[in-house]
Amino acid sequence: MICRWLICLLACSSTLLAGSLSLGSYSGVPGGTVAANLMFASQGDAVSGIQFELDYDATILSINAIAGQAVTGAGKEVQVSPDRKKFLVAGLNQNLIADGVLVVLNIAVKDGSASGTYPVRFTSATSSDTRGTTKPMTSTSGVVQVGVARTPAISPGGVVQNFSGRPEIAPNTFISIYGSNFEGVGRKWDASDFQGQNLPAQLDGISATVNGKSAYVVYVGPTQVNVITPDDSFVGTADVQVRTRGGSSSPMKVAMSRQAPGLANFVVNGKTYLVATRGDGSVVGSAALSSSGVTFRPGRAGETVSLWGSGFGDCNPSAPSGVILSGDFPLKADVQVTVGGQAAIVSYKGMVSAGLAQVNVQLPQVAAGDQEILVRVDGATAVSNVFLTLQ
């Protein structure tokens, strides 16, 4: 009996399952787009390639795919058939696919679609190993629940400067808007969203206004929309609104002035550090923070690094609003920087792209370790209680 069982196991080994694919349940609205994570889980085999087919109602849904972390981490790409129902993950055979998000399916619900539940079924799924041997996979299908679009709502205090997190805004400044029913799939703008040199005023039908003027939409998610504010001479309390297919949110009032500076930062173990970069792309910080594609190393006295921020006010000459910048636009504001209590030399300050300012700083001679960096804009403190790591 044991021998028969062993012979059967060996004979059938080529049909053992290599892993599984699964989709969950998602909600969408007519004219909207749903981002569905298609997950891959191996079952101990070395998987180098994956192919699967989907069946869905193409009169209601349209599907495109972008590579998930499991694919990009393996240096592979996703190929989609013209009918958008066959999908192939392929690349160098020796690179194995790890467990995680295989692809993100951007599922568009067509305008005028009736409410209801629409299945997205796997009809086949196979994998291949480094030798090209194929094996079947298990799969769990998903559904898209199409309902009526809901009116967006901005949370109380949900409008903040993107870099500082403070509830104050200014023209040509990155801001974040938090709330609910925004319907975004969690994507930022890409090249296809631009009209020539003009920044997009909407992404996937989602837009925003600041003081009644159209903002430029950078990112749309289900609970967050990031925009660059339009140019405006207004100073006071401004209304911010988000518009989706479900309508317009109620206005959220926020303080607006000519300046609302903030600088890009990151947090490690509860401590905030400014983002300071070098010409070679490395970042000032502890070398222990280095990871794939990003190199950190402490700053040195005398070297020049770049700080990045938004909301620093007017330029001379004025930077045009709502377009890709080309040229030099120095800031009018007086920007002063100290590191560890010592004055740093500011060698450049200017707008380098829409909403984004660059400040080049020569680091002073201070003790090694984490030193507080203080930035003042026209005498007002822009950032404090943040640090740079020096050697």
Helix content: under 10%
Basic shape = globular
Largest sheet: 9 strands, antiparallel
**Which secondary-structure class do the elements indicate?**
mainly beta
How many domains, as an integer? 3
> What's the CATH architecture name of the largest domain?
Sandwich
Gyration radius over CA: 26 Å
Could you tell me the strand content as a percent range? over 45%
Low-confidence stretches: 1-15
Number of helices: 2
The number of E-state strands comes to: 36
Distance from first to last alpha carbon: 71 Å
Rounded mean pLDDT is 93
Give a structural overview.
35% of the residues are buried. The chain starts with a helix and ends with a strand. The chain contains two helices and 36 strands. A hairpin with a 5-residue loop joins strand 6 and strand 7. The N terminus is likely disordered. The strands form seven sheets. Strands 24, 27, 30, 31, 32, 33, 34, 35 and 36 form a nine-stranded antiparallel β-sheet that branches. Strands 2, 4, 6, 7, 9, 10 and 12 form a seven-stranded mixed β-sheet that branches. Strands 14, 17, 18, 21, 22 and 23 form a six-stranded mixed β-sheet that branches. The chain folds into three domains: 130 residues, Immunoglobulin-like (Sandwich); 104 residues, Sandwich (Immunoglobulin-like); 129 residues, Immunoglobulin-like, CATH 2.60.40. Helix content is 4%, strand content 50%. The protein is mainly beta.
